[in-house]
Amino acid sequence: MRPNTPLVDRIAKGTGVCVEMIQDTISRPTPGEGPCWEWNLSFAGVTPMIMLDGRPQPVRRVLVASIHGELPSTIRVVPVCPNKRCVNPNHTMVKNQFVDGLMTLTPPADFETAEDDIMDVVDTVYSTEQPWDAASLAEQFPVYTEEQFAEAIRKIEDEGL
Q1: Up-side HSE of residue 119: CA atoms within 13 Å toward CB?
Q2: Which of 15, 85, 92, 110 could form a disulfide with 37 if both were Cys (CB 3.0 to 4.6 A apart)?
Q3: What pLDDT was estimated at residue 106?
């Protein structure tokens, strides 16, 4: 069995950022500050991914969870950095997808999901354990329709999102 490599060492390997800077950022986050940490390993579509607990997970979400503790599935970790490869947690924003108006990232259920919005559904799918079932996910997360979950699952499986 392979030994578990500490998260900071894995992030350092994927970004080329020194372990000390990663540890310092995790222990004392300062939003908006610091250089970009460009992820150079695995991606699912445009989302940087890391293997954790035997399954691929979004790097930004893993890093934010390492700072704040386990994140509920209703919490979204959104990059605010224009560099799409950046995984620096200081360059992310945490949002609750069920907050009204300006805070929500998903359209009301009666609107068609735009291509950008499908990434919200994809992230929600990734936050649950496999095997994925669109009907049960729609029951668990009523803000999305079963069709939106089916499309997100198809994109994950067929397009590698």
Answers
A1: 13
A2: 15
A3: 28
With CA atoms as reference, report the closest residue to 36 among 50, 66, 16, 55: 16
Kindly give, in sequence order, each residue whose CB lies less than 8 Å from that of residue 65, ignoring residues fewer than 6 positions away.
Answer: 71
Cα–Cα distance between 49 and 128 in angstroms, integer? 15
The CA distance from 106 to 83, in Å, is: 22
Q: What is the pLDDT of residues 74-116, one digit of tens each?
A: 788 888 888 889 999 988 888 776 654 333 322 233 334 445 4
Q: What is the dihedral of CA 149, 151, 156, 158, to 10 degrees?
A: 150
pLDDT at residue 35 tops 70: yes
Partners of 43 in the β-ladder: 48
Structure tokens belonging to residue 129: 């354990």
CA atoms within 13 A on the CB side of 22: 21
- For residue 107, the model assigns a pLDDT of 29
Q: How many CB atoms lie within 10 A of CB 60?
A: 27
The pLDDT of residue 151 is above 80 = yes
Given a contact cutoff of 8 angstroms between Cβ atoms, the answer to whether 78 and 95 are in contact is yes
